[in-house]
Amino acid sequence: MSTPDLHDDDELPPELRSALQDLPRERQPGRLLEERTVRALREHGVIEAAAPRRGIRRLPASWLGGAVAASLALFASGIAVGQWMGTRATAEVVSAVQAENSRNTAMLVQQTGTAYVQALSKLATTRDSGAHAAQGREVAVRMLRAAADELVRIAPDDPVASAVLAGFQKADTTKAAAGDKQRVVWF
Fold first, then answer.
1. Percent of the chain scoring above 90 in pLDDT
2. Mean of pLDDT values over 2-31
3. CA–CA distance from 117 to each of 13, 97, 161, 179 (Å)?
4. Contacts of 34 (CB under 8 A, 6+ apart)
């Protein structure tokens, strides 16, 4: 009996023929074959040997220096901008507080002056001519003198405050010449 020739498909039994037709016509080469082929091509100089890949990528020193310089410049400019903004905001707040303080001080002077004038008016309308009225007049004069002193300190060229102080100095010299003793009122 003769062995069937594999190249002659007509002589094969039908089950063997269908099994041969089911076989793949191409086959994937294994990884080992690829590695051997690449190694052989490198040895013959057909392809260059690539540098082995590592997990760490190295940067040139100039890039590293530039990155550090850029980081420092960014950090320094951030500090400068932050300080400028903080200073500007602080200056605005201080200016607003000073304006508010000036307005409050002016209002306080106005209220105090009004109270002083009202107290003097009330003192003038009292019928009492005793020690309490004299003490009230003396305190009023001393407060007027203290206010004139402060006004001259604030505005040295103010003629009204200077005239008030000149009147007080004239009164002091007149009293000193007369030998009157000044009375101190403690309150």
1. 7
2. 75
3. 137, 30, 17, 31
4. none
**CA–CA dist 16, 4 (Å, integer):** 11
* pLDDT value at 44 more than 80: yes
State which amino acid sits at residue 160. V
Instruction: Count how many residues are written for the chain.
Output: 187
Place of tokens 């500007």: 88
Does 54 score more than 70 pLDDT?
A: no
What is the domain partition of the chain in residue ranges?
76-125, 129-187
Q: 94: exposed, middle or buried (C-beta count within 10 Å: 0-12, 13-18, 19+)?
A: exposed
pLDDT digits (tens, 9 = 90+) for 163-172: 888 888 888 8
Please give, one letter per residue, the 3-state secondary structure of 99-144.
HHHHHHHHHHHHHHHHHHHHHHHHHHHCCCCCHHHHHHHHHHHHHH
